[in-house]
Amino acid sequence: MYEDRRDADAAPGEGGQQSLAAKKNPAAREARPERSPRWARLLVALGLLMMLLSGLTLAGGRFLADRYLGNVHQESLLGAAAAPRPVAVRPASAHALIDGPINLLLVGIDERVEDPSNGARADSIIIVHIPASHDHVYLISIPRDSQVEIPPYGRTGYPGGTDKINAAFAYGFLERGGRAGGFELLALTINRLTGITFNAGAIVNFDGLRAVVDAVGGVSMCIDEQTASVHIGQDADGRLAAPYRLVPPDYHPVPIPGVRPQVYQVGCQPLAGWQALDYVRQRELIPDGDYGRQRHQQQLISTLYKKIAKAGLLTDPLATDRALRAVGDAVTFDGNGVSLPDWVMMLKNIEPNAITMVKTNGGQYNTQVIGGREFEFFTDVSKQMFAAARNDTLATFVAAHPDWVNAAATP
């Protein structure tokens, strides 16, 4: 059985230690925690790689996009979970044409680079659906505690079994599987669950999200529920410290005396990279838990893209350079045999407001306790939602279930 380590060891400044930057500059204590959360290899690949580069082609054509593509690490991730390639190749001077509806798998992982034997897990799982018109994006988050059937995986000798969906990445990562093995087994698990195969996939590294937010000068987000951080706080002397311990086996938060947590109050406000990352990471102390965290993650993707597309960053060479370098350094991408420039050109017609964020299970818990462990189960309507993504009828599903759409967080 895979042990879910959750976020217990991911707090910046754990042990109450002050960062070197804060020691040299007291203002740094307020401005930027030094250590980035380990779970946060998340969400940037579509919102900030695909769509940012797509928007860039509108401003400067393929030349500007091509300049940055060498920074993007490309690797075969999907393996047997890859969809057939519905590609008609245009003349040599033009881009390939990607026909039909598209599904991408976006995964944020918690990986111990310094200790590979400790494995890796998928902390954020998003299905990205693009209809055949290629002018809209739907984001569907899968709760990481969802109970699923994980298929056997010969690459690591995993025999198959029932577990939480985030364990699939861990079982594929074992032994020689690595990140590619983890991604493939997770994708195969989702295929067994939903029938969806994937046209592309991506992983994002530790500092990807924070670096991109900082590169664009921060974001303004409308906080929709008071959110206290279990990871970032200050002690009585103003030093950075973790305000809670997450105690196994259920990893409930226990306050650490004398440490005041970072609190995000309801309302629209500017967020630096570390704040945005910390806010969308929280689930332990908010009423809707993991569903709230999924909503906040989706909102951050949408907010980032809208800022980049609407605020003129694509016409600001320095800002564009910072953002694209941050994204390129963060992403591992599998285009399933289609080049990254062709993916970029295919998505160039997606407008900033053409992002629909869909709630799995309508954003409501459907939990069962089995063997002392809590599992999420998909409702019949969620299964209809997955079928709509598979059949390219999500627009019809959303029209019939408007309460399953997450509100945007952009002021």
Folded structure, characterized:
The radius of gyration is 20 Å and the shape is globular. The chain starts with 19 loop residues before the first helix and ends in an 11-residue tail after the last helix. Mean pLDDT is 77; it is low at 2-48 and 55-64. The protein has helices spanning 20-24, 27-31, 44-69, 166-173, 178-194, 208-215, 273-279, 289-310, 317-330, 340-346, 380-391, 394-400; strands spanning 73-74, 87-88, 97-98, 102-111, 120-130, 137-141, 147-150, 161-164, 200-204, 219-223, 227-235, 240-241, 244-247, 252-255, 259-264, 267-271, 331-334, 355-358, 367-370, 373-376. It has a domain at 40-209 and 337-404: Nucleotidyltransferase, domain 5 (2-Layer Sandwich). The relative contact order is 0.19. The protein is an alpha+beta fold. The strands form seven sheets. A seven-stranded mixed beta sheet has the order 1-17-9-4-5-6-18. Strands 12-11-15 form a three-stranded antiparallel beta sheet, with no helix packed on it. The longest helix has 26 residues, at 44-69.
